[in-house]
Amino acid sequence: MKLYSSPTSPYGRKVLVVAHEKRLIDRIAVVQLDPWANPPELLAVTPLGKVPALITDDGASINDSTVIAEYFDQIEPDPKLIDTNRLGVLARAALAQGLIDAAFAAVLERRRPAERQWDAWFARQRQAIERTLADVARPDQFDLGGITLACGLAYLDFRLPEIDWRAARPELAAWLDRVARRPSMQATNP
Ligand SMILES: N[C@@H](CCC(=O)N[C@@H](CS)C(=O)NCC(=O)O)C(=O)O
């Protein structure tokens, strides 16, 4: 398999953490690139030009971190990361994915030239981040929901350190610090 990713992408990290947890990583050739540079190698495998993108051993192309994680869960069920409570796991994973989406949108907004930044848009993303941080439950499993949340919280620490979520949610911060010691998280630290 071939996985296109970027070292700082929280979506790419999520998929790589899943691959490490399942010990699939040795079967995957990871190609790290910058999707914003429109590398022809990436555009040849996905018209979206986004990472992560996976090419399976059968030559199929799979976009989107959640679908790639689902594929990994099918080909290597141990440990199962979307268990029998499928809807519950996917609902927690979707909430955490929304946290990543809002954080990513906020970061992109801040990268525009100053005169083109829209403060109201940044504020909207920040409010969504803060509401979600107040709402999200501390995971008791490192399943797809837990992995997505860990990648999202770590991304906040990395790119939006001004959002002091650790003071508001110390038990969540302690959880992140604990799971951050897992080899899968250590190996994917940007
Ligand atoms: N929903 C997608 C989001 C993927 C995504 O937005 N990736 C970013 C990198 S962090 C990207 O490649 N952006 C390039 C672009 O939007 O052109 C997923 O979960 O995989």
What does this structure look like?
By secondary structure, the chain is an alpha+beta fold. The protein has 2 domains: 2-75, Glutaredoxin; 86-182, Glutathione S-transferase Yfyf (Class Pi), Chain A, domain 2 (Up-down Bundle). Helices cover 55% and strands 7% of the residues. It has 9 helices and 4 strands, in the order βαβαββααααααα. Strands 2-1-3-4 form a 4-stranded mixed sheet, with helices on one face. The longest helix has 26 residues, at 86-111. It is globular. The model has no long low-confidence stretch (mean pLDDT 97). The chain binds glutathione. Residues 6, 9, 11, 35-36, 49-52, 64-66, 104 line the site of glutathione (GSH).
Order of helices and strands: EHEHEEHHHHHHH
Task: Give the amount of beta strand, in percent.
Answer: 5-15%
The 3D shape can be described as globular
Tell me the helix content: 40-55%
**Overall CATH architecture of the largest domain:** Up-down Bundle
* Assembly state (oligomeric): single chain
Poorly predicted ranges: none
Bound molecules: glutathione
Q: What is the distance, rounded to the nearest whole angstrom, between the alpha carbons of the first and last residues?
A: 22 Å
Radius of gyration from CA coordinates = 16 Å
What are its keywords?
binds glutathione, 190 residues, Glutaredoxin, 7% strand, 2 domains, alpha+beta, 9 helices, 4-stranded mixed beta sheet, Glutathione S-transferase Yfyf (Class Pi), Chain A, domain 2
